[in-house]
Amino acid sequence: MKMTNEEYRRYAERRAPRSQTRGDLLRAFLYGGAICCVGQFFLELYGSFGLDAETAGTACSITMIFFGAALTAAGVYDDIAKRAGAGTLVPITGFANSVAAPALEFKTEGFIAGTAAKMFIIAGPVIVYGTSAGVVYGLILLLFKAA
How many whole angstroms separate alpha carbon 27 and alpha carbon 7? Predict the structure, then answer.
């Protein structure tokens, strides 16, 4: 069967899978929003216990990190992420997952060579970049305030 380039282009367009961008965006928005609503619930809960805003925020962050790591350890977070897509990456639970998942994957190699060495394999570059950017920003701010 001989086809011209134009005929092949039309044939390929008909056979190509349709983009699911709208559905992916909606799922990411809904799941990410739901995770953030859970975080807001804990923030309000800790505030109702009499904690000031900063302490309640810290307690909320610790709680969300704990739940992200616990759901990763239980194998549930990956199932959620398959449906939610990027919605699970942005909140703090995604960071907890990126630290806990490699640690669990390499635990058979031992505590030092496996868990401790591999737990920051994904999150490590983010931590290093964030720390480095903070230092550079701080130095620039110091220089401009001194001038």
Answer: 36
In DSSP notation, the chain reads ----HHHHHHHHHHHSPPP-HHHHHHHHHHHHHHHHHHHHHHHHHHHHTT--HHHHHHHHHHHHHHHHHHHHHTTHHHHHHHHHGGGGTSSHHHHHHHHHHHHHHTGGG-IIIIIIHHTTTTTHHHHHHHHHHHHHHHHHHHHHHH-
pTM: 0.64
Q: 43 with 92: CB under 8 angstroms?
A: no
Quick: pLDDT tens for 61-100: 999 989 988 998 898 988 998 888 888 876 688 878 777 7
Phi/psi at 126 (5° precision) = -65, -45
Domain ranges of the chain: 20-119
Q: Please give the structure tokens belonging to residue 104.
A: 């669990």
